[in-house]
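Protocol step 4 of 5: obtain the predicted structure for the target chain.
Materials: sequence only (see below). No template structures provided, no constraints applied. The aim of this step is simply to have a reference model before the mutagenesis design in step 5. Sequence pasted as it appears in the construct record:
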Amino acid sequence: MGGGTPQPAAVCRTRELRARRLRFPAAPPHPQRAATRRLGAVHQHRPALEDRAGAAGQHLRRRAHGAGHHPPRIRPQRTPVISFPWISRSPLPPVARAYCDGTPKRLPRKTPLDQVRFVVIDAETTGFDPLKDSILSLAAAPLQAGVLPLNGLRSWLVYQRGAHLTEAVQVHGILPSDTRLGEAQARVLEEFLPVITGAVLVGHHLAFDVRMLDAALEYHFKIRLQNPMLDTAALAMRAIEAFRKSGYPGQRAPTLDEVCTLCGISPLERHTAAGDTFTTAELLMVLSARLARQLGRPLTTSDLPIDRA
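Step 4 output (structure tokens):
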């Protein structure tokens, strides 16, 4: 008789189970049960993990402070700006657009002065804070090729509804009741912008007038002055030996009265917008002629302390 030795029943059963596992792999564990087991393991070992993290943090802090350094500062990430190119800003008023398009922010350095148009400006205000004070009067005088046409001087009285008595009234003498006869500030700026378009702005201690005008223009037209600017105080410090920079700290720029006294100019209607504008224009011509004599040649824009807006 053929055939091998018969196998025990237990061995046959084991071989059968192995064959089934090969043909039918075991089903994966239920995901919810697996997550529950992992969460239980985390909770079980949580105290030990917290102790290890706390010890590591204390070690890093001791090491940083011992070396004289502060712990690294984590900078917050900026929120990305989402732009919509199909949505444009509201267009500027025509007078503001014409000013921006017709006024370069800088001039070529070697431009002869007789080819440059200057406009001297001055403003009288309720105070010295652009955030809470307002313009009461404004004046502008165009000047080109050393000529100041008398009929070119423009001045405006500005109506301010909430104007009240301040210390500045003692300087310029404009009472709150006087402003009732003035024009609205927006209307004044609409007439003022064409006068200064494309010109170099000139003034004595000009930065203050520019700050006041920027605040008004920003409020009404959402623009700022972009003209090149010339301060006659800085020009006096270049043209007059007595006012030149000494290198000592705390040296201040000369006042309009001080420069006029040294140049022999009699101020006209001091502390009024029109009077100070006319006086500053006269001072510009005198200082320019004085500097040209010192250099021995006609002046160009590079000879004057013209600043970009």
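Step 4 remarks: The mean pLDDT is 80. The domain at 94-307 is CATH 3.30.420.10 (Nucleotidyltransferase; domain 5).
Proceed to step 5.
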